[in-house]
Design a protein that fits this description.
Layout (H helix, E strand, L loop, with lengths): L1 H20 L28 E4 L5 E6 L15 E6 L5 E5 L6 E3 L19 E4 L2 E6 L2 E6 L4 E4 L4 E3 L1
Antiparallel strand pairs: 1-2, 2-3, 3-4, 4-5, 6-7, 7-8, 8-9, 9-10
Length: 159
């Protein structure tokens, strides 16, 4: 009698567990060769950063597209343009998706400037909502809504 009660208790316990958790997912039929098909999760497409440096080597920029890259995502999702000036004092100017340009004087990761590609004086660079003009007197960059910054050895400006 004790054995019958224990068996009934075990059966009711299993039934209540299945009802509480729901039925297990159905098994997929085996594909040819006896292997179960595998679903590959969708991957997010990430962009590539673009870099350029002015001929003086004192100013360099990195553009990050909307959605970021596999190693860096802007806080607001991007796009983002960040330009660093090395001399006379290190500073970083940043234009994000929206809002005014920002100047950072205490940069925690000074890493300017790449070896190229060089944006020669008089040339314009553009990507996403940003465009920049390289001149002998400095670099001016603007987002398509009019917010901008200017970097040179003698002057810094951001709006």
């Amino acid at each position: 009698m004790k054995c019958l009660a224990a068996c009934l208790l075990a059966v009711f316990s299993m039934i209540s567990t299945v009802l509480a958790q729901g039925a297990p997912p159905p098994r997929l039929p085996a594909a040819e060769g006896g292997k179960t098909p595998v679903t590959v999760p969708e991957t997010k497409t990430v962009g590539r950063q673009e870099e350029f440096v002015l001929p003086s080597g004192n100013i360099g920029c990195i553009y990050t597209p909307e959605g970021g890259t596999d190693v860096y995502q802007p806080a607001d999702g991007g796009p983002e343009l960040a330009c660093d000036r090395v001399e006379p004092r290190y500073v970083r100017a940043t234009l994000s998706r929206k809002g005014a340009a920002r100047l950072a004087h205490d940069v925690g990761d000074p890493s300017c400037c790449s070896a190229g590609p060089v944006l020669d004086y008089g040339q314009t660079w553009s990507a996403g909502p940003f465009s920049c003009l390289s001149t002998r007197t400095g670099l001016s960059c603007e987002r398509n809504d009019g917010h901008s910054f200017f970097l040179s050895r003698k002057r810094l400006a951001a709006n």
